[in-house]
Amino acid sequence: MLFNFVLIVFIVLVIVTVFVEFRRMRRITLCSMLSFGNVLYNALTPALCFYEPQVVWAFELYVNDAGLEINELGLVRSMLAACVFQLGILIVACLGKKKNIEKSISSNSKHIYRAATVVGMFLLLLGVAGVMWIGLKYNGQLMGLYKITYFERSALALNNPAQAFLMNLGIYGAAQLIVVFLLTDRPKWAVSVLLMMTLHAVGMKSKFPVFWVLLVFSGVVVFEKKSIIRMLVPIGFTALILSSMSFLRGVQNISELPLYIATYWEEIGEVVSNPWGNDIPGPSAMTYYVLNTQPDFTIAPIWDTIKIMIPSSLVDRGMLLPEIYAEKMIGSGYAKGLGFGWPLICDGFLLFGWIGIGLFSGIVSLLARFVETGHSRMTETSKILLKIICFSLTPFALYSIRESMGGLIKALVVMSVLVWLPTWLFANRLPLIMRRITNNAELK
């Protein structure tokens, strides 16, 4: 009875948040996406566990392996944490002013799109360089990364932080290219980048690249109404690959992918039909463990935020909270790089208890609001760049729910300094460069 009441409260909070945001901006906003992420990673698994426990058997397995039993009170605490997190989003949504920046954006400033394309291409090339570099270190082959096993992936990335960083830049560059290609009506190029990143994700046995670019691609197609029916084909194909990645990780060599799919297509179908059998319950299992083991309050989330800003290649940061608690849950089978995700709920709860959950939710929502709203005195170039940034951040609304505050801030800093700032600087310099070239041509 208590769980039903808390669940109803949560549903009402989500509906009101989405309604308030849609009324304010007349579209789905980043705060609305945060609400969807809260539903997916914090609330849906406990709800399914309460009503249909056989569906989320992986969640029960994770919790039981950590030495805990699932009970109604524990599920109520998990759902209550999701309610507090949603309340923080709703408060920020209610404080926002009614504004729609897209109406003031003109399509005449092509130089911002050119600048975004150049920066995106450059970052994508850096990602390719990272793939080749780490492949050479792994087995002496340029494409050696695509021959690793799943269990080697985490250790390889942790032992080669510079190469892993370059590959992340490649993902951010690909996302920006997809946004620009779709906004400038070049869907074939956008689909090509999407499929390229999908194959890259299968080859390196990681969901992150395909997860990121798929959400960016889908966000632009849906919100900008870019040939939605026709774009359902690449979206559906990529979503199918993403949902079956937990099984496709068994492909040791990417050249064997077609044969592997033909051989195990029935097993892949079972994996696709059971999304709660793998990664999705992970963050909820971590939240359940933290909320129900009564840990002491600590300033470790703040300290971790500082430590994570320091490159691991320069200083040994030691074990961070996600690694400490992953080791507690997994036990003797733990290896560095394994884990279940680290929801913001855990950071907030360990810092200030239930109040901390709402505080961290409010901080993330304010960040989303700041990025999305911008400033009324922005130039046309800045407004178009803000539009590109908002679409590029579509995955962040889901990713941030299962990421620590330190990891979230670091990713935003990296993207701001190495993606958006160069785009803005190049966009403001590009008209001057083009004018100078034209003047020189006229003089000659």
UniProtKB/TrEMBL annotation:
Write out the coiled-coil annotation as residue ranges.
Answer: none
Species source reads Trichlorobacter ammonificans
InterPro entries in alphabetical order: O-ag_pol_Wzy (IPR029468)
Q: Which UniProt keywords apply?
A: Membrane, Transmembrane, Transmembrane helix
The membrane spanning regions, by residue number, are 6-22, 34-53, 73-95, 115-136, 164-183, 204-222, 228-248, 351-372, 384-401, 407-427
* Name of this protein: Oligosaccharide repeat unit polymerase
> Highest taxon of the source?
Bacteria
